[in-house]
Amino acid sequence: MSARREIDKAIAHLMDWAERPEWVDEKIRIYDRNIVDAADYLDMDVNEIFEILDEHRLLHMLYGFSFEDLATYRFTSDGRNLIEDFLKRRGWREGVRGRRYLRQLSESVLSLYEVQSVVPGSYCDVVDLVRGGEPVRVYEKSGTSNLARSVSIIRVTGTPVQALTTSAISSSVTISLSSRFFSG
């Protein structure tokens, strides 16, 4: 089985795991936190945000962002996270590459990055808009093929040479949302 297929299979199993009764309340809380807090901060109605994202066919990004937040979030009551729970209880059924990907995802930090430069099919340089710091070079062959210079939600592992997921956001959406987010 190819690495991509093995990883996709592990993600699908993790998504199924998130539907278990013990995770449903946490999932709802994380999803609500992501959209409601953003709407409050931007002084927008939740439906306005959904309309903007839907207009640009980007609702899947909100779901993906929220799911990755759920998967990596450490719940303070017991310090657990979805991925660690899944790997402990069902990880034996995943291939080596799928388990490795999920472990890396579990240890990653969710943030918002600005793409500074792109060499399609090779790498991109990004700057963390939340934590600041120097640009980081992210090596990602397929993800940089269609990536344009814009604000993007991406996830980077501890070593800045592997991007786990990348998604470009068009300039119009960037202007609609980030101008409100970064003003004031």
Helices and strands in order, then pairings?
Layout: H1 3-17, H2 21-42, H3 46-55, H4 59-72, H5 82-90, H6 96-107, E1 109-110, E2 113-119, E3 123-128, E4 136-139, E5 151-156, E6 163-168, H7 171-182
Antiparallel strand pairs: 1-5, 2-3, 2-5, 3-4, 5-6
Feature tags:
disordered C terminus, 6 strands, 184 residues, alpha+beta, 51% helix
Question: Would you write up a description of this structure?
Answer:
With 184 residues, the chain is α+β, with helices and mostly antiparallel strands. 51% of the residues lie in helices and 17% in strands. It folds into two domains: 1-107, no CATH class; 108-184. A hairpin with a 3-residue loop joins strand 2 (113-119) and strand 3. It is built from seven helices and six strands.
